[in-house]
Design goal:
7-stranded antiparallel beta sheet; 9 strands; single chain; about 35% strand; two-stranded antiparallel sheet; 4 helices; alpha+beta
Length: about 150
Amino acid sequence: MRVLLALLVAGSVALAIVVARAEPAPDPARGVDGVAAWLSEMTGECTGYHKGEDFTAFVGPVRSKVYTPFVVEWGTCTKQPYERLGLLVLRPGLDTAWREALGRGEVMGDPDLVFGDGFALTGSIGMEYLGLKRLECTTANCSLVQIEHH
């Protein structure tokens, strides 16, 4: 979401008006094709797009075990600095599954994904400019947190 500040001067009174404008978001009905198109529109990058390769080979067996039940569709594209950036369309529940796997000692830390509404990407560098969030988890709770600009 972009926030614009407009200054309105009426007589001797100045008013500041904050206008929020939502960034375009992927169309969930278009699946991972929509995520790739959105990423390309937002960044000018998402080349070499491929759908549905071997997910376990891409994320590894531990993450695959936790992520796979929630992945509706996935693909990859090239977006610097990533040769293969993962694009995932998700169903709800990954946060709970990660927290439970954390409690069982199957995973450590937070998922290496950044999240939008119904989708995630496997990178973190530069994702703060896309309005995406990180999932921070403990064994008791998970929270989506805005990525800080560096």
